[in-house]
Every structure is written in structure tokens, then in C-alpha cells.
Amino acid sequence: MNKLPGYGDTVICPYNKCHVIMKSRIQTHLIKCAKQHPEIQLETCPFDVTHKFRPEDKNAHIDECPSRENFDRYVYSVSTNNAKETTETKPSSKSRRTHNNDDEDWE
Ligand SMILES: [Zn+2]
Ligand SMILES: [Zn+2]
Hints:
- This protein has 107 residues and is mainly α.
- The chain has helices at residues 26-36, 58-64, 68-106; strands spanning 10-12, 20-22, 43-44, 52-53.
- One zinc ion is lined by residues 13, 15-16, 19, 29, 33.
């Protein structure tokens, strides 16, 4: 635990940019800070529910959200897997059977 605070593990409070909060405490902080700023309605990131931001910052956040890449990759891999399954299920099971028979001969 020798890490310096303020590098990597901190988040800037969307209610007040002077608040630099440890990531592990941001949710607690947001609840407290929300009570102090009832006029500010934050939006939640579609990629990570722990990301909160002001509506006017939404586009900027979506552009640079660190979770977005994972989300895109997940969607992409799911859709490619589905495509593979539908197109390749029958041929691959057939070729596997043939291959297994060959293996049995070898043993
Ligand atoms: Zn705050
Ligand atoms: Zn986000």
C-alpha cells in the first residue's frame, strides 16, 4: 500500500471539480455530494454504473469512457460468436467426427 494517492485511483467529483475522490469512495461521496447539490441531476454511464456525470458532459464522457472499449469488444465478440455458431455448427461437428475416427485408428 505504498501508492501515492492522487494517481490513477482517483475520480473527479462531477458535482464539484475541486473534489478529487478515491475511486473506492466515489459512490459514498456522490451520495453525500448529491444532497448538497440537489439541483444537479447526474446521468449514469451506459458502460459503467459507477460513472456519473452531468448531462452536458455526457458526450465527452462517452467518447473517453475507459469502460467503453470493453463494452464494444464484448458486443463485437458476442455478435461474431453468434455468426460463427449459426454458419459453422453443422460443418464443424461433421469434420470433428471424421477427425475423431482417424484418431481412433491411430490409437
Ligand atoms: Zn463532490
Ligand atoms: Zn463511463
